[in-house]
Specification:
Length: about 250
């Protein structure tokens, strides 16, 4: 019997306006969760909120840059006020780099990618932890990447940021396990999302990954990634903590 039931639970999904985040928000809502979507894009976030409400669910949105503390504070406060609790945090929002090797990575690329992919989930996790600790329970699921498991799946900035995400997962899992809080991550391989990759055709990083892409068993859908996020957040995964689950068609096994 499935225990992926989130009736009455408060779920925050970052990057919930599109791609994996949207699919996860819809999946959580179908399972009874009250969902807060945090995203930069007001119109798209509003459309997902309306889609959930039209289907009979409960949802709201907070728009802003999650690497800014005031936006993070607003997300946490709104979640408590509108959802009643923060039972699940899906740290999903992220950006790609330009597939640049370290020697070709400029400060702007590095700072943007690390700020969005690593600093933002750090800030939001820090903001929600007191609420989860007070409740004695909580599940945090990060969207890492295949690039968090190896060195040649993206450029230097993205790879470093996603390895950092795995470090956050393991730290939270180790230090909050006795307080009823779990932290895990999915490691998506290539997925059909709208994430933008501004990379030159002759980029050394792109050239390095091209031969590997031909070995991967297809490209996943956002819904396949979302299913893994929902599973890790659910009671079915109640004894899974500090894990990174590759959702990559077997790429991690190569």
């Amino acid at each position: 019997m499935s225990t992926q039931n989130f009736a009455g639970r408060g779920v925050v999904v970052t990057g919930g306006a599109s791609g994996i985040g949207r699919a996860a928000a819809l999946d959580f809502a179908r399972r009874g969760a009250k969902v807060l979507i945090a995203d930069l894009r007001e119109e798209q976030a509003g459309a997902v909120v309306e889609e959930i409400r039209t289907a009979g669910g409960s949802a709201c949105a907070v728009v802003g840059d999650l690497s800014e503390q005031d936006v993070v504070d607003r997300v946490a406060a709104t979640a408590v006020e509108e959802l009643g609790a923060i039972d699940v945090l899906a740290n999903n929002a992220g950006v790609m780099d330009r597939m640049s090797r370290l020697g070709e990575t400029d400060d702007t690329e590095w700072e943007r990618v690390v700020r969005i992919n690593l600093t933002a989930p750090f800030l939001l996790t820090r903001a929600v932890l007191p609420h989860m600790v007070a409740a004695g329970r909580g599940s945090i699921v990060f969207t890492a990447s295949e690039a968090a498991l190896r060195g040649g799946a993206a450029g230097a900035a993205y790879t470093a940021s996603k390895h950092g995400v795995v470090g956050l997962v393991k730290s939270v899992a180790a230090m909050y396990r006795d307080q009823g809080i779990r932290a895990n991550a999915v490691g998506p391989g290539p997925t059909m999302t709208g994430i933008q990759v501004d990379v030159a055709p002759d980029s050394p990083g792109a050239a390095a990954i091209a031969p590997v892409l031909g070995l991967i068993n297809g490209v996943s859908t956002p819904e396949q990634q979302a299913a893994a996020i929902v599973f890790l957040a659910s009671e079915e995964a109640s004894f899974i903590n500090g894990a990174v689950l590759p959702v990559d068609g077997g790429w991690a096994a190569l």
